[in-house]
Every structure is written in structure tokens, then in C-alpha cells.
Amino acid sequence: MPESNQSGEAIFRSAEMSLVQLYIASEIGRETVMSLGELGLVQFRDLNKKVNVFQRNFIQEVRRLDNVDRQLRLFERECEKEGLTLEDGDPHSAASASDIDALVALGDTLEKRITELRDAEERVTESQTESQELRAVLTETAKFFDQRAGGGSRDIESQSLRNVQFVAGVIPRDRVEVLERILWRVLRGNLFLETAEFGGDDGDKSVFIVFSHGAEIISKVERIAKTLDAHLYWIADDVRERENQLQEVNQKLSDIDIVSQRTRHTLNTELRLIAQKLPNWRVIVIKEKSVYSTLNLFQYDTNRKVLIGEGWVPKDDISKVKTTLKSITDEADVEIPSVLNVLETSRTPPTYHRTNKFTSAFQLIVDAYGISSYREVNPGLPTIVTFPFMFAIMFGDIGHGFILFLAAFALVYYEAKIGKMKRDEIFDMAYQGRYILLLMGAFSMYTGFMYNDIFSKSMTLFKPGWAWPESWKEGQTIQAHQTGVYAFGLDPTWHGTDNNLLFTNSYKMKLSVLMGHVHMTYSFFLSLVNYIFFGSVVDFWGNFVPGLLFMQGIFGYLALTIVYKWTVDWVAIGQQPPSLLDTLINMFLAPGKVPVPLYPGQAYVQVILVVIALICVPWLLLVKPLWLRRDMQKHEYERVSGNGGPLDLLDAPDQLEETVGDTPGDATGGDDFDDEEEEEHGFGDIVIHQVIHTIEFCLNCVSHTASYLRLWALSLAHAQLSTVLWDMTLQAAFGFSGVVGVIMTVILFGMWFVLTVVILVCMEGTSAMLHSLRLHWVESMSKFFEGEGTPYEPFSFKDELATN
After folding, report:
1. Residue from 232, 224, 229 nearest 208 by CA
2. Residue 722 Cα to chain centre, angstroms
3. Quick one: how far is CA 629 from the chain centroid?
4. What is the DSSP letter of 13?
5. How many CA atoms lie within 13 A of 89 on its CB side?
6. In terms of DSSP bridges, do strands 192-197 and 205-213 run parallel, antiparallel, or are they unpaired?
7. Cα Rg for the chain, rounded, in angstroms?
8. Which of 293, 710, 733, 755 could make an SS bond with 745 (beta carbons 3.0 to 4.6 A apart)?
9. Name one GO cellular component term (predicted).
10. Is residue 220 domain-shared with residue 315, that is, in the same domain?
């Protein structure tokens, strides 16, 4: 692969990566990986793929830290129950090995303490609930007997009371009716049931008392009540005993309340002390877990007592890694120095694009579709401009763009404050894409000026290029005459005319085709940049040249005819302008025949272009497979003729590299070499692939060009919807006068503004954004983007803390 002439550049294409091998003394393995995690530049490879995860060297440490992590999550939940606010931990918090041992022991102690306090609180609460229920039952029972003793309306004969027994308790209120129906049917009406609502906090319960004859029936009542989750309580028959029982319950509740307050106070005090240190503990445990999980990727050399690891590092940052290793070795004063070796490898490195808070959102748009192959052109860079611009063509309105710009500007201005807030999924998406929204709003205002459209109305910023007659009769159709050219954008004279829609339709439709041609052409030239960078001559002659001739011979010609047709004053020359759609169709169906010529010699030009396009199809289909077949035969001939001869000496280094690959001796043992070998393709596979590519390319040139007509369709729909909304709200309000007019204007203005934001900005904006996304993913990126890379995911404490 050729060397990049732009050292350190990682925006236009991914950064150059190197596979490095680390030799670290086992006694400083933890400290070294800890420092590399703070540095965040090494993506470690797993050198123990064939080793079971439970048999790795540091699995016990990982398990121990998992337990501590579980304990910290328990403390966090308990703090949330107490309403305690937890601050963010210091990301630079660190601890020594002895501190970790102390934290493990402290976690066990605190877990036991908090669990005991919480269990004690639950037991006290349960006892308190039972006592409250018993008190309610005693109170309601006393009321019932007092009513009967005083000769209430539902008196029971004293003779029958001698043989009556009763069951009392508390039951969920929604099951009172169920209990009554079941007892009535089972006992055949041989009962008396009294209920009352449970006062206090538990308002969803009711007290009940059931009277009936016989111990067997009472036992049956108790069993039925228990099946309905009722709590039964023993109540004395004697009045004095019930009064004593009530006094005992009140005293017990008083004691329970004191115990409950003390328990909660102790628990709250313990959790407050934990909450002060919990955030930093979480940071420390997350770091330690990630360190030992990373160390499990290393191999351990028992003879030399060193840890051996491999990882990908950006080429320009290798010196930083070396400096870090040296500083850790010097501080620890160990006999075995840490060593970093850069390995020669045939493996495909991960893709790494350096981004900042502005470019990261645009890069995510590309990465959502696919990760760029290593060192190929990054679509994320041009997307910064083309994505909001394609959106703006469909969303062009000064007013709507300004609303979107203001909303995005607020997100950018308060980004530090919003970044610390807890955000829901939708708001977080808007926040992460705030710079995209900002450019979308700015570009929409620009295209709004081009369309001269602000909330469906025009502005006269410069002198119009058309003049109306000075006088006319009512009902007469008048026609403006051109006096010049409007300085910038669409002339405001067109707004409100009968042929406005016809003119803007034609203008925006042709503009969308031109934008599509420019967008696809520059995207196709990015493939040339890739071919030059990778030195692929066969792709240049077999894909780029025929593809360019085919695309430009048909659709480039269409774009030129659109521009040429705009430059001709057809009224001045007294000629009817030809239909470009008919011209393009007849170019293939009737070559050499032009019913209405656009320019002299048009027939000959179109025949030549059609012939070139037809030649490009077999060119695109055959050149690359035949070229590769020739190279394959040449290599096979050299391999056979060089067997045992002097050519072996020339091929020896290559043959040795093919045999050994990047396996660093006994360090990695070649455990995972086979899983990354490049797949070899036969000639038949190459032909099939090229046939598919040829068919797709030719068809996509047609379908993708037509796909850009969505720019015209959505722009037209957006403008018409804006006009309809204005006419049905504000325009209608202007028909009223006086106080009614003021009131209607205020009401309809509020309706117009809300509908504008909800429908035209939010809904239409989302639709235009998705269409712009599709134009980039499919129509543009398909011209040059392979997207077969793997993301660069270095071991970084910053990422670990953000994830957890």
C-alpha cells in the first residue's frame, strides 16, 4: 500500500494504523494497562481466543470486581430510595492494589450492614401494618357492638347472640363483594356481614366482621377469607378484654414508631456517608474491571514472566505509547523493561477517523450505513456540506429555516448545560445532531433566498426584472414585460401569477436533475481518488473510464442540454423550445432523428454518444476480468517456472511472508491467524462479480438520476403546503375588522405558528432529512464507497465510563 503524503491526516481518509506487540513485566501489568487506558490509543487484540473465558489468568479478579460492582449498584438503588442525589464521579479517580482490597472488604461490610438495616426496617414496617390493621379491627368491632347494645336499626336478638360466633379481619377493598357473594352462596345466607373502610394511609383495604353459627362454619369462613388475601385477627368476646387489647396495640404502635424512626435515621445516615464516596468508587471499579478484562487478552510467558499483548495504534501516536511504557517502567524500577515492537502484517487494520464535536455527528451518518474500508476516501467529509444542502433544496424557506436555525443555535449555545442533563431518546438525538440542524437551518435560509420564499410569501429586496402595465381593466388578464434580471434568486414578480406554479415546477425539476448529476459525478470521481491511492490500474481502466463515459455520455449530456436550453431566448428567435424528455427518449429509440432540434448538428452528436455508451457496456463487463485473468496466469507461470530456479531467491521474501504472516513467533502462537486471511477468488467469481457490477451500474445511472427528482417533489410540496396553511389561517383572519378582527388575528396567528412548527418544520423537516439521508447512502456513496471496514475501538477509560 502506498504511503500517505499527508502525515497525521485522518479526515479525508482514515489514519494509518500499525500493529504493535507489547512485552510487559507481569508485576507492572496492571499499572501499564491502567496508563494505556488513560491514554486511550491502543485497540488490543485477543490472543487467547482458544482459551475458555473462565480459564484465563485474571478471571478471579474480574469476578471479584463484578461482585463489588453489584454491591455498588445495590447502594445506588438504596440511595435513590432515600432520595439522595449522586454527583458524577471524578474520571481521574484511581486506587492502588491495596486500596482495591480494602474496597472489596468494605463493600462486604457495608452490604451486610445495609441489608440488615433494610430487613429490620421491613420487619418494623410489617409489624406496624399488622398493628394498625388490628387496631382498625378492634375499633370497628367496638363500634358494631356499641350500636347493637344501643338498639340499632339492625338489632340482633339477645337470645340468638349467645350461640353466634364471629370472624374479623382486613381484606383488600376490591375483594369485599367477592367475599360477600361466596359466603352467601356457601353458607346459604346463614351469616351476617359488616364492613367498614380502613382509615389512614392504606385506603385500599376494608375491615370486615362475619357472624354465623357453629365452629365448623366459622372455620369454613376463615379458609375462604384467607384465599382472598384477608388478614384475620383474634378478637376477644368480652368488652373489657377488647379495651385492654386496644390499649396494648396502641402502646405497641407507639414503640414501633420510635424503633422505625431510629432505624430509618440510622439507614439514612449510613447511606449519606456512602453517597459521598459512591461515585468515585464506581469510577474506580469500572476502571479496574476494564483493566483486568484487557489483561485477559494478553498471553503470559511463564518462562520470562512477562505479559505479551498486541494491538492497533495510529502510526503517528506510537511515540506516545512508547513514552507511557517507559515512564511506568522507570517509576516501578523493574528489571525487565517494557518493549514495543511494530509488526509487519497482512491483516486489515481498523478504520479510525479523527473527529471533533462538530464533525462527529456527520461521521455518524456515514458510519450508520457502513464503516469505511481502511484508508479509502471518507464520505463523512463532503457530507458536512452536501447533506444540509440537499436538505435545504427540499426545505427552502427563509422563515422555516430560521426557526430551525434558532432551535439548533439554542442547543449549541447551551450545549455544556444540556450535556449534563438526563435526556430522553428523541431529545438526545436532536442534541447529538445539533450542528447538523444548525447547518440545515442556515442552508435552508440560503435556498429560501434563492426561491424568494418566506412563509409562502416573497420579498422585494432588489429591483424586479419585470414590469406590469400601468393601467388595466377589472377582470382583464395582463402580462408583464421583462425589463432586466433580478439580482439574486427568484424574481418576486412571479409570486401570485397564474403561471407561477408552471414556472417553478419546471425550474425546480431541472434544478434537481442538475444537482443529482453534480452530486453523482463528484462522488464517482472519489472512486478515482481511491484507485490512484491504492494503485489499482485495472479499476481505473476497467471501471472508472467506461463508467465515466457511460454516465456523462447520457446524463452529462442531459445536464448540458438543460443549461443550454436556459441560455437561449426562445421568444427572441421565435422558435418553440424542444422537450428535453422527448429528446432523451428519441436519442435511443430513434437515433439520428431530431424532430425539434435544440442546436445545429444535434443528431450526429447524439448518435456518437449512444455508440460510446453501447461500447462502454462490454468494456465495463470484460476488461477487468480479462485483465485479472492475465495477471493470474502470469503469476502461475512465474511460480511454476521459478520452482527450484534462481527466481526463488527473488520470491523468497514474499513466500516467507505468505507463510508466516504476522505471527510473532511463540508470542501469539498463530491462534487466530486463519480467521483473518484474505479470501481467494477464482476467475468465475470475478466474472460473476463484474456482471453484477455492470448491470447495477447501468441501471443505477438511470434510477439514481430519477431519484433526485425527490428534490423537486418535496420542495414543491413544502411550498404548496405552506401556502395552504397561510391561506386557511392568517389570510382568513385578515378578512375580519374591528375587535373581532384583532381577536381572530391573535387566535389564528397562534394556530398558524403552532401548525407551522409542528407540520412544516418538524414533520416536513424530518421527511426532507430522511430523503437527504437516502440520497447520500444510496445515490452518492454507491459510486465509490466499499464500507467493509471495522471501527477503531481503543481501550479507553473515557469510553468505558461513558458506556457504564
Report:
1. 232
2. 31
3. 44
4. B
5. 22
6. antiparallel
7. 41
8. 733
9. fungal-type vacuole membrane
10. no
Mean pLDDT over the full length of the chain: 86
User: How is residue 3 written as a grid cell?
Assistant: 504511503
- The C-alpha atoms of residue 108 and residue 666 are separated, in whole angstroms, by 42
Report how far residue 557's alpha carbon sits from residue 679's, in angstroms, rounded to the nearest whole number: 41
Please tell me whether residue 43 adopts helix, strand or coil conformation: strand
**DSSP secondary structure code for residue 238 in this structure:** S
Report the C-alpha gap between 123 and 312 in whole angstroms: 56
> C-alpha grid cell for residue 704?
439514481
Rounded CA separation 439/391 (Å): 10
Q: Place 209 in a pLDDT band, splitting at 50, 70 and 90.
A: confident
Q: How far apart are CA 404 and CA 607, in angstroms?
A: 49
The grid cell for 740 is 373581532
Q: 379-417 burial, b for 16+ CB within 10 Å, e for fewer?
A: bbbbbbebbbbbbbbbbbbbbbbbbbbebbeebeeeeee
Higher model confidence: residue 347 or residue 136? Answer: 347
- Of the pLDDT bands very low, low, confident and very high (cuts 50, 70, 90), residue 150 is low
Q: Identify whether residues 575 and 698 lie together within a single domain.
A: yes
Look at the chain and report how many structural domains it folds into.
3
Helices of type H across 642-678: 647-660
Instruction: Say whether both 701 and 587 belong to one domain.
Output: yes
In eight-state DSSP terms, residue 493 is G
CATH of the domain at 225: 3.30.70.120
pLDDT in tens, 322-341: 999 999 988 887 888 889 99
Burial 261-271 (b: 16+ CB within 10 A, else e): eebbeebeebb
Q: For residue 799, is it within any domain?
A: no
Of 316, 426, 221, 310, the residue nearest 664 (C-alpha): 310
Q: Going by DSSP bridges, is the β-strand pair 205-213/231-233 parallel, antiparallel, or unpaired?
A: unpaired
Count Cβ atoms below 10 Å from residue 700 Cβ, excluding itself.
17
SS3 648: helix
Q: Are residues 330 and 182 in the same domain?
A: no
pLDDT value of position 434: 96
Most confident of 189-193, 465-469, 633-637, 754-758: 754-758
pTM of the model: 0.80
**Which grid cell sits at 541?**
481502466
User: Domain check: are 569 and 685 in the same one?
Assistant: yes
| Residue 210 counted as domain residue | yes
**Rounded to an integer, what distance in angstroms lies between the CA atom of residue 707 and that of residue 687?**
29
Exposure string over 743-777, b if 16+ CB within 10 A, otherwise e: ebbeebeeebeeebbeebbeebbebbbebbbebbb
C-alpha grid cell for residue 259? Answer: 424503633
Tallying the residues shown for the chain, one arrives at: 804
Which residue range is the domain that position 580 belongs to?
Answer: 504-637+681-709
Q: What distance in Å separates the CA atoms of residue 757 and residue 475, rounded to the nearest whole number?
A: 38
DSSP state of 377: B
- Rounded-to-10 torsion of CA 760, 765, 766, 767: 80
Longest dimension (CA), the chain: 128
Considering the domain architecture, whether residues 220 and 305 belong to the same structural domain is answered as: no
Please tell me the predicted confidence (pLDDT) of residue 152: 45
Q: Are 380 and 359 in contact (CB under 8 A)?
A: yes
Rounded distance between C-alpha atoms, residue 490 and residue 488, angstroms:
7
Residue 214 located in a structural domain = yes
* Side chain identity, residue 99: D
Q: How far is CA 325 from the centre of its chain?
A: 36
DSSP of 420-475:
TS---HHHHHHHHTHHHHHHHHHHHHHHHHHHT-BTTB----S--SEE--S---TT
H/E stretch holding 22 reads strand 17-25
- Return the residue matching grid coordinates 456512602: 274
Query: Cell numbers 449530456 correspond to what residue?
Result: 557
pLDDT in tens, 638-662: 666 554 444 343 343 333 333 333 3
Three cell numbers, residue 107: 463493600
The rounded Cα 331 to chain-centroid distance in angstroms is: 42
